[in-house]
Specification:
The complex is a heterodimer of chains A (313) and B (258). Chain A has 2 domains: 223 residues, P-loop containing nucleotide triphosphate hydrolases (Rossmann fold, 3-Layer(aba) Sandwich); 62 residues, Alpha-Beta Plaits (2-Layer Sandwich). Helices cover 35% and strands 31% of the residues of chain A. Chain A has 10 helices and 14 strands. In chain A, the strands form 3 sheets. Chain A has a 6-stranded mixed sheet, sandwiched between helices. Chain A has a 4-stranded antiparallel sheet with strand order 2-1-4-5, with helices on one face. The radius of gyration of chain A is 25 Å and the shape is globular. Chain B is an all-alpha fold and 258 residues long. Chain B has one domain. Chain B has 12 helices and no strands. Chain B starts with a helix and ends in a 5-residue tail after the last helix. The chains are: A alpha/beta (313), B mainly alpha (258). The interface between A and B is medium-sized, with 31 and 26 residues.
């Protein structure tokens, strides 16, 4: 059973004064997320990430399509006891303290009174919000609010967690902690679905990612698959402080850094470069194929989308 | 009441308390004690009448202002601040949210009215030095005021479920004013002819009939209130509030939270 199955969810808003002009926020989206995965939902601002999450949370209603979460219809309110959700830039009841807020959410999620107190302390500790007893949320910084948001999303020990831009508002240390937390959740068998436009986070964390652009899905796959495109080039590193003339003759662009030299060459030149290094009696350190980074893949996808949209226009 | 409704109601009450809504009681106490001392000095024999009239009218107006100003923001503020997202992403039905909010606000007003009632009786004791049997009728007037609050809370919630706070306030206040003159509107409908008669009759029965709830003056004159009126007002208020709440639920159930 998949954790999340999105079956053609689509959203079109009617805009304008008379609400007669359709504006498509999300084209029919088909996506499956397996249990225990960390799934990254990537896209630039305004791509449709938040709309998708709002549809899944039942905050907006789809124009068509449906979804299943843990095998059950996504509109079934009871399935929400198994779901945790962190909205983008969360804002909470600022007259409450973090403990009161979590107690309230625990009540709404059906966490028994006996367990609530203990769970609240656990999750606050987990997100690094200690020493906040008695402090109202209106006195929290943006980063602290984000941590409180993550705490409320995992408070009731949900099986599937949806995070909308979880790193937003966090300092580098905080981002690292959230990344660790997401990895811990995965180790606990939870499914994590998170949206982000910070690609390094996605590359470091995700088993699979989907790329969405202007409401349309542009690609889905395992991070390794998406980044394994060898561009027919190899990265050669050897020991040395100077670039030999034979290398220059091959036309390779070389960079000297300390006592190593790095060159990116075409695969066809690989043997010639190795021979040249042997002749010069230089020690080869490594030779690795050049892989596309997730960022390059992402930019390329968006560039193609832009081109095809421009062509169609 | 289901547990989630109780939790939402209790949080709504807590919000009102923390937002210092009950501070209005201080203004009320100052107004009433000042009035009691003042009328005690200037009026002869009618101190009681003035204190009851002034006290109950103040209870009603303070409550109406609170009901409208909190009620209009109950849903729209939660949408605007996005606090609703983390509530509705839990096993909470939308109708439970609306009903919970209603009970939270109604509870706030009942507590507020309770403390103001103590103030009214205190002022009465100050000017009359003792309670008499007809003073118990003040409880009936207070009961009617609370019933009135239930209708206003439900109406404010109804407007809040689809409109901005400003427009909701305008709608709710307008209905309160028109409703206070509902009997006159019905009288006008009776005298009108043709289409005007139909329109006026429709409007007269559509707006809440708050004039039926206003027994302050007759109670101040120690006139009894018919049991039938108590029953009628109770049924009417509960029915009207239930209808307004159903409307709020119906709208909110289909609303996209952008």
């Amino acid at each position: 059973m998949a954790a999340i199955e999105i079956l053609g969810l689509e959203k079109t808003y009617m805009v304008g004064f008379w609400r007669k002009r359709p504006k498509r926020a999300l084209h029919p989206l088909h996506l499956t997320v397996e249990q225990g995965e960390i799934f990254g939902f990537l896209g630039p601002n305004g791509a449709g990430k938040t709309t998708t999450l709002k549809l899944l949370m039942g905050l907006v209603f789809p124009t068509s399509g449906s979804a299943r979460i843990l095998g059950r219809d996504w509109t079934d309110p009871d399935i929400k006891a198994q779901i945790g959700f962190l909205p983008e830039q969360p804002y909470f009841y600022d007259y409450l303290t973090a403990h009161e807020l979590l107690d309230y959410y625990g009540q709404l999620s059906g966490v028994p009174a006996k367990q609530r107190k203990q769970r609240i302390e656990e999750v606050l500790q987990r997100v690094g919000l200690t020493d906040v007893k008695g402090v109202q949320l209106r006195k929290f910084s943006k980063g602290m609010l984000q941590r409180a948001g993550i705490a409320q999303a995992i408070l009731h020990d949900p099986k599937v967690v949806f995070f909308d831009e979880p790193m937003s508002g966090l300092d580098p240390m905080g981002r690292r902690e959230v990344r660790d937390l997401m990895e811990q959740l995965k180790q606990e068998g939870k499914t994590v679905f998170f949206s982000t436009h910070i690609l390094s986070d996605a590359e470091a964390l995700c088993d699979r990612v989907a790329i969405i652009y202007k409401g349309e899905l542009k690609g889905v796959g395992a991070v390794e698959d998406l980044t394994s495109t060898v561009q027919g080039r190899v990265d050669v590193v050897w020991q040395g402080t100077q670039v030999p003339a034979s290398m220059k003759a091959l036309g390779a662009e070389c960079h000297v850094s300390g006592d190593t030299v790095r060159a990116v060459i075409s695969e066809a030149q690989q043997d010639a470069v190795i021979d040249a290094l042997r002749r010069e009696r230089l020690r080869l350190i490594s030779i690795t194929p050049v892989r596309t980074s997730l960022e390059e893949y992402f930019v390329e996808k968006l560039r193609r989308a832009e081109t095809s949209a421009g062509g169609a226009a | 009441m289901n547990a989630r409704i109780a939790y939402i109601a209790s949080n709504t009450f807590r919000e009102a308390v923390r937002d210092r809504v009950l501070y209005n009681l201080i203004a009320f106490a100052l107004l009433l004690s000042g009035a009691a001392i003042f009328v005690g000095q200037i009026s002869i024999e009618i101190e009681k009448l003035v204190v009851i009239n002034l006290g109950l009218t103040a209870v009603s107006l303070f409550g109406v202002v609170i009901a409208i100003f909190i009620g209009i923001g109950l849903v729209s503020k939660e949408i605007e601040r996005r606090t609703l997202y983390t509530v509705l992403s839990r096993p909470v039905r939308r109708w439970e949210f609306i009903i919970g909010k209603f009970f939270g606000l109604a509870g706030t007003l009942v507590v507020n009215t309770f403390f103001m009632a103590i103030g009214v009786f205190g002022a009465l004791l100050y000017v009359a030095h003792k309670f008499t049997r007809p003073d118990a009728l003040i409880l009936v007037a207070l009961y009617f005021i609370v019933l009135q609050f239930l209708i206003i809370c439900a109406l404010a919630l109804l407007f809040s479920s689809f409109s901005s706070p400003l427009l909701s306030a305008v709608f709710a206040f307008s209905l309160f004013v028109i409703g206070s003159f509902a009997e006159d509107l019905r009288g006008f409908a009776g005298m009108a002819h043709g289409l005007t008669r139909w329109l006026a009759t429709g409007a007269a029965y559509l707006v809440p009939n708050f004039s039926a709830f206003n027994v302050i003056s007759s109670i101040a004159h120690e006139q009894p209130v018919a049991g039938q009126l108590i029953l009628h007002n109770t049924v009417y208020a509960l029915f009207y509030a239930a209808m307004a709440l159903s409307g709020a639920v119906l709208i909110f159930e289909h609303r996209n939270l952008k």
